[in-house]
Amino acid sequence: MSESRTNATPTTSRTGTAPEYPAGRAVEVRGVSKTYANGLRALEAIDLEVRERDFVTLLGPSGCGKSTLLRMIGGLIGPTSGSVVVGSGSRGAAPAFGPPGVASTGRRAEIPRPHETRLSFVFQAPTLMPWASVERNVRLPLDVAGTANESAPRVAAVLKLVGLTDFADVYPRELSGGMQMRTSIARALVTEPRLLLMDEPFGALDEITRNRLDREIRDLWARRSLTSVFVTHSIYEAVYLSTRVLVMSARPGRIVGELAIDEPHPRTDAFRVSERYAHWCKQLSEMLAASSDEGSGDRSPRE
Amino acid sequence: MSDHATRLLAPAIVGVAFLFLWEALVRAFDVPFYLVPSPLLVLSTLVRDAPLLLGSLLVTLKITALALLLAVVLGVAIAFVFVQNRVLETSLFPYVVLLQVTPIVAIAPLIIIWVKDPLAALVICATIVAIFPVISNTTLGLRSIDPGLADLFRLYGAGRWQTLARLRIPSALPYFFAGLRVSGGLALIGAVVAEFVAGTGGTSSGLAYQILQAGLQLNIPRLFAALLLITLAGVAIFLLVSLVARLSLRHWHESELAPER
């Protein structure tokens, strides 16, 4: 068991612009802060490293900036200061990555683009195109990349993987919430990503469906040499899925603790009712409680 | 009785009852036909004057169709430009509004003087009346995209055109059709109003011209018959646009889904 309540990158050498990144490093976040135009400090001094094959979970209360951090890793927003390195591409503070909206101008050569690092994102909502069938929704990343002619077998394969083969021609509104989420996961997997970012993907689902999808994510991660960064506010989900859990606190968002869930994979359903499971959950919930005490101290009017 | 039958039958009963009452009142009080003709007289006038009136109907419909087509093509093109360029939109949108609020009766004489070809002049007038809902609704629709889907498109490196074709246009379709439904009626109104203005110059033989002539000659049954044709044309345009909207949106948009049974 390794637990540290300091920042999460003890071993990175800060030599600046290294052209080659050590094999096995999927994501590196260094000294990242994000301050919005209205003065809100969403993230402060974030250091984070994700190794390949890691399943890292960002755990924290709502408003702690965990989604912001994930979107930054995905390249959807840029940091105010610090740098984010995903795979072989680097995104620092401006001007390497422009404000949101500029990135969609189609000038491919100028901006390091998330899709070139084989990265996929599963959002909190299924985020499906209501006018397109399940099959066309799943095919979208391939269509956009212009590889549509070789897409049919890959689409069929991921639909089978998530158990939606019989629903290929169905429109999203006809699906249950869980099936919509599966469609979203299939779409994320169709590009065969190396890095899968998930932002509370099952937050809106009932517990039974959520447990089942957690199991599917666990299997996918184990079978497909994926690296995952997962955002949740569920301690139970974090313990079940993760190799490492980073605990965050709010206002400003910081990483206040790290816990390696030192349990063998694949994790069984029996693990979810074991004493060891309860032990990990207890530890995480204590870390969360400690961090929120700190947080309320920061905001105290007596200061 | 099924829902569908009720929806057709209920308004039909009201209509027939109204016509009966009208016929009965005209007969009971012996109202002269040059004040209020009875429905039967209007119908027989319609049949008798059919060659004249249908010819005029065709002229009006041609103007309406051309104007609606022009309004859609220009309106959608302008909306695309507005969505791609905020500066252009903020600079030009006030003038689009100006065009919308200026009564067409006031500018029609100018256009008819400026444009030599009478048909072209009438089409331009009707287009001016019909174009605003297309521009404003399509612009709104092209902007009303799911932010999550917008993120997704950026994530997969979709360019401006990909995003337009695969995300903005499908998102805008329901808004566009809502605008088109209004524009269809406006194109007809614009055509008739322009004909009225032009008709005084004697350059047109559309339905409005027939109404003007019939009014001058106190041929009130023919006036009613022409009015009836304009109304029917308006309803037909509305139904046609609704049908196209239904065919385009029936798979996914809430407005066109069959109710759950």
What is the compact description of this entry?
The complex is a heterodimer of chains A (303) and B (261). With 303 residues, chain A is an alpha/beta fold. Chain A has seven helices and eleven strands.
Structural overview:
The complex is a heterodimer of chains A (303) and B (261). A seven-stranded mixed β-sheet of chain A has the order 1-11-10-4-9-8-7, sandwiched between helices. Chain A folds into two domains: 1-8 and 24-29 and 40-118 and 194-296, Rossmann fold; 126-192, no CATH class. The two termini of chain A are 36 Å apart. Chain A is an alpha/beta fold and 303 residues long. Chain A is built from seven helices and eleven strands. With 261 residues, chain B is mainly alpha-helical. Chain B contains ten helices and no strands. The longest helix of chain B has 40 residues, at 160-199. The mean pLDDT of chain B is 89.
CATH class wording of the largest domain in chain B: Mainly Alpha
CATH superfamily of the largest domain in chain B, called what?
A: MetI-like
CATH architecture type of the largest domain in chain B: Orthogonal Bundle
How is the CATH topology of the largest domain in chain A named? Rossmann fold
Primary descriptors:
heterodimer, A: Rossmann fold, 2 domains, 7-stranded mixed β-sheet, globular, disordered N terminus, B: 261 residues, mainly alpha, MetI-like fold, 82% helix, flat
What is the topological layout?
The complex is a heterodimer of chains A (303) and B (261).
Chain A: E1 3-4, E2 25-35, E3 41-51, E4 55-59, H1 66-73, E5 81-86, E6 89-92, E7 119-122, H2 134-145, H3 151-161, H4 177-189, E8 195-199, H5 207-223, E9 227-232, H6 235-241, E10 244-249, E11 254-260, H7 275-298
Parallel strand pairs in A: 4-9, 4-10, 7-8, 8-9
Antiparallel strand pairs in A: 1-11, 2-3, 2-5, 5-6, 10-11
Chain B: H1 3-28, H2 39-48, H3 50-84, H4 86-101, H5 104-114, H6 118-143, H7 147-155, H8 160-199, H9 207-216, H10 220-249
